[in-house]
Design brief:
Blueprint lengths: L12 H16 L8 E12 L5 E10 L3 E2 L5 E3 L3 E2 L1 E3 L2 E16 L11 E12 L5 E12 L3 E12 L4 H9 L31 E16 L4 H45 L1
Antiparallel strand pairs: 1-7, 1-11, 2-4, 2-5, 2-8, 3-7, 6-7, 8-9, 10-11
Helix pairs in contact: 1-3
Length: 268
């Protein structure tokens, strides 16, 4: 009788995922160097559930410390009229915006740079008489993670409880406005370490703005990571090959045993 022993270790799924998570954690903690840059393709897709019909969006970016850009950090979409989509009134923009950011700060770990900028939005309407109305404000943190992200930003706008202010908005288009759009979040000139109080500001909820963010990261500090992943995948291939050979030998051994048993029964 021939005895086939197992050659090489079996493929262990638990060890595979443990190694994968270790490499993923290593990728998340890689330091940024001076050659790191992010490319952002941003699309203001649509705005819905606003009071007025003809809408456009004014936007600008505030970069975090250590990031620079040679691109303009502000813009405005075209004016779009809302259309009924189901129960919602939607204004479609599909306004693309591209921005390149370069890291010029000291070496820091990836986990410390989850947000590289803040995007501020101001939704404005224009009616037949060329009167402008502020329909809402919103902001979001621009992610540092590469890939595609779709965000639905809820907006709000300041209102006045006085009757003459509401009549002014209806007849002449005057609205309470923010002097600085960064006041939508934490103002850029706010003193660090102190509390920010917005008590006393009367607001009401408005519509929703949909923004799609596509991020591409380019850096030279990934070469070591790529080499580690290549070696890891090579190890997985060797383990898978050894596991396949072991399975083939085991199947051959079972088939030969059945054949010998059948031959012995036939001779009896």
């Amino acid at each position: 009788h021939f005895h086939f022993a197992r050659s090489g270790p079996r493929f262990d799924p638990t060890g595979f995922w443990r190694s994968f998570l270790r490499i993923w954690h290593h990728r998340r903690r890689l330091p940024y160097d001076a050659n790191c840059s992010n490319n952002y393709n941003i699309n203001n897709v649509a705005a819905k559930d606003f009071e007025k019909e003809d809408l456009f969006v004014h936007y600008f970016f505030h970069l975090s410390e250590g990031w620079t850009s040679s691109c303009p950090l502000f813009g405005v979409t075209h004016c779009s009229r809302t259309r009924g989509t189901g129960r919602a009134e939607v204004a479609h923009f599909s306004h693309p915006f591209q921005m390149d950011l370069t890291w010029t700060g000291p070496n820091r770990e990836d986990g410390d740079l989850d947000s590289v900028a803040q995007l501020y939005l101001e939704v404005i309407s224009q009616d037949f008489w060329s009167r402008f109305h502020v329909e809402g404000y919103a902001y979001c943190d621009v992610s540092n993670n590469p890939g595609r992200t779709s965000m639905s930003l809820k907006t709000w706008r300041p209102v006045s409880t006085r009757l003459d202010s509401r009549m002014r908005r209806f007849f002449t288009g005057g609205d309470p406005q923010l002097r600085d759009l960064s006041n939508t979040a934490v103002p850029a000139d706010a003193a660090p370490g102190k509390r920010l109080s917005k008590y006393g500001i009367v607001t009401e909820t408005s519509g929703t703005v949909t923004v799609v963010l596509n991020v591409v990261r380019q850096t030279t500090s990934k070469s070591q990571e790529h080499e580690t992943i290549r070696r890891f995948l090579g190890t997985i291939g060797k383990r898978a090959t050894q596991s396949s050979i072991t399975a083939v030998l085991a199947s051959f051994h079972r088939a030969r045993s059945r054949m010998l048993a059948a031959r012995a029964g036939h001779q009896v």
